[in-house]
Every structure is written in structure tokens, then in C-alpha cells.
Amino acid sequence: MAGPLKNLPQIQSLIDEPLISLIVTQYSHSETVDALRAIIGALRSSFLADGELSLPDFSSAAFAASVAARVEFARRPSLRAVINATGVIIHTNLGRAPLAPSAIQAMQVTAELPSNLELNLDTGKRGSRHDHVERQICKLTGAQAAVVVNNCAAAVLLSLMATASGRSVIASRGELIEIGGSFRLPDVIAQSGSVLREVGATNRTRLSDYEAAIDETTAVLLKSHTSNFKIVGFTSSPKREELARLAAEKGVILIEDLGSGVLLDLSPYGLQDEPVVSDILKAGVDLVMFSGDKLLGGPQAGIIAGNREIIARLKSHPLMRAVRIDKLSLAALEATLRLYAAPFDPFAQIPVLAMLSEAVADVEGRAQRLVHALAEAQWVQVEVQPSIAHVGAGSVPEQGLPSFAVACHVDGYSAEQVTAKLRAYQTPIIGRIERGRVLFDMRTVRESELSIIVAALHQIQDA
């Protein structure tokens, strides 16, 4: 069996081939060697599996082209743009919220040129990066003050460290949530140096439970919006206004971890139970924390809004420097927040809001256009069918959005094989499988992406 393997050339002899030496010059010696080793390794594995060894012409232009192609493949960025055809608008695995064009432009300008990130242009002295978005956040939420860190988990950790380290935090058992990546709220509380005191039961917590637990060690009443799950049936919990009055009477702080965080009422678009940040602050909550890259539609960020004195403590806390927002995310967040004010229409200009508010008839029309573009392809069967899209990222998990999808079957291939080939396409396409067919949900597919899906399906057939 090993005899034919002796015919495999040494790497150095391949490097000495004139056409291969040009590849070394074009790229690098190490990259070319890696590509050659991979090719020889594949030939060896093929022989051991099949017992046959078919050698290419190692001096040919075709072989040199295959080596160059492997080098180019290895040079591809690991982080790449994909087409989200899953129907999940804020898909955590796919980068959550796509940014508005103005936010992307703001990031580019800030990346290319020096900026007044921490320079006060009026005084010429050192300024604060928080000033660039604080006024906008306060205007949109009604907060007295605001500060931004790099994500919502950091916002919770900073808030608790600055207000409750060494003291106790009271939270309902029904709100001790776990977020993505197995990060649990009790662990975050412990990391902050606070002591968790659980009250109530999983399904029912009363105001009296909080009141009975408050003592001289209590610093914070912590409420968490259960945006990524729902407890139904025999349930109850105190209203925010009740908790706010109790916190004020007892001289403790009421903090709410909102998670997603919306600035506008989404109920006209069929999404209920997602509280608006301004309403939470009106109810008397001292601090509210929410994400910038979920329903707000901006970059990754953790926004903290509320009481002026508490926000000042957060800004001066030593942890702030470790969790502060970077300049590119700050630029994108500022530009996104501006789209919430006149003359802009956030539902037209912020991609997340545009997708969740788009009329279902328009979604169906896009599905019909994809089917029409594939009408003459006899090797693929496609049809439009109703679908349910989702907001994603732990937001309103039990509420779907009416949508339409294109169901696809490619002759000679299973659905799993088709999705694998779509992921391997030059612009990876991520759909979902239902009942043995690949579905492209059009609520998350843009008009400009239809032609790419068509080309990718044609490449499967041509392979």
C-alpha cells in the first residue's frame, strides 16, 4: 500500500518548480509551503482511503493555480460578511444589529482621522468621551444623566460595584436570569462584591417579600426584565411603581437590568411586553441598563441611564476605564441615536427597526422575486410559503413576526448538503432547514442579496 506514496514529491522539489517559485515571490515561502503540504496531505489521505493515487502534473499551470488558490483561501478573513436568511432579525451568532449607513460612515470618519474623543473644543482642555452621547440619551429617555460602557453585562457589573459592593442586593428568584454564553446574573452579582438575597418564588414574588428582606445591609433592589423567557400561569410580581416607592421609603436604590431596551413603542408592529426605557424611568427606577446592539439598532454597548448622582459615582469608579466604550462604537452609537430625532424616521433608517416594521406584503413580494429569478432552473424546486420571523437576541422570544420564506430543494442534494455549500460560498448564506427543505426567510434578506442567493444556488448545480 505504501509503494505508490513514494511517488509523492518532496516539498522542496515542488518549491523549485518555476511556476511554484513565482507563487513564493507573490505571497511568501511559509504560506506556499503550508499550501503544498495541505495538497500532498490530501493526496496521501485519498490514497489511504481509496487505494488509488492519481497525481497531478506538478509542473503545470493548473497545479500552480491550485496552490495559489489554497493560499488565497487561507488568507480569507475569519470574520466575514454573511447573508442572514434565518428570519431572526437580531441574530447573536451573526453579529446582532446591522448598522445604519450613517453609523457606518461615522465609524469610518472616526477611524481615519483624529477626533475630539476626550477633548473639549470649547475650553481646549481634556473632556469626557461620555459627553458625546449623554445629552442624546437623556433627551430620548428622560433620564437625568447617562453613561455608556462596552456591553450590558458590563453595565450591570459596574452599577452593582459602584452602589452595592460589600452590601446586599435583593432580587426575585423568578428574575435570576442566564444570558448568552452561560453568564448568570447571580454570578455577576457575586463578582461585583455584593451579596445576593433571593426573595419570593420562581413564579410569584410579592412586594412584601422585598420589604421583609430589606435590612441595614441592603443597598439595591434589582429588577431584571425577563426578555429571553416567559413564566406563564399562576404568576405575579410587584409593579415598578411599587418597588420604586418602597426603595425611596427605605433609602435604597432600585436598578433594572432591561437587557434589550427599546426607545419607541413597538406594539403597533405586533410586539408586546417590551417596555420602553422612558416609561421605566417615569415609574421611578433609579438606574436602567440596556443594550445598544439589540432593539436600539446600534453598535455593541451597555447604556446606563437614570439618577444624576448615581451616574456620577459610576463615571468616577475605577472599573469604568476597564469597561469604557471604544471610539468607533461611540461614533456609531451617537449617529444611531441621532436617527431617533426629527427629521429622521428611525423605522426607515435603522435596519433592525425597518426589518421588524416592514409590511408583510413587501416581504412576500421579495420572496416572489427570488422564486421568479429561479423559475428557469429545472434542477431546483422553489416555492413561497408563509413563515414566522423572530426578533432574536433574547427579545420577545414567544412573539413572532409574520413573514414569507422561499422553500428550496436542489436535485441530488440533501438540505444539510445545500446549507453546507451555501455556508462555503464566497458570501456565506445562512438559512434554516424545515421539513427537509432549505428556507430563506425574506424578512431578514435584503433586495440586493437576492442575486447572490441565486448565484450561490447555480454554483451548487455547476459543481
Automatic annotation (TrEMBL):
Pathways involved: Aminoacyl-tRNA biosynthesis; selenocysteinyl-tRNA(Sec) biosynthesis; selenocysteinyl-tRNA(Sec) from L-seryl-tRNA(Sec) (bacterial route): step 1/1
GO BP terms in the entry: conversion of seryl-tRNAsec to selenocys-tRNAsec; selenocysteine incorporation
Keyword Transferase: yes
Top-level EC class as recorded in UniProt: transferase
Cofactor entry: pyridoxal 5'-phosphate
Family to which this protein belongs: Belongs to the SelA family.
Identification of the protein by name: L-seryl-tRNA(Sec) selenium transferase
Encoding gene (name): selA
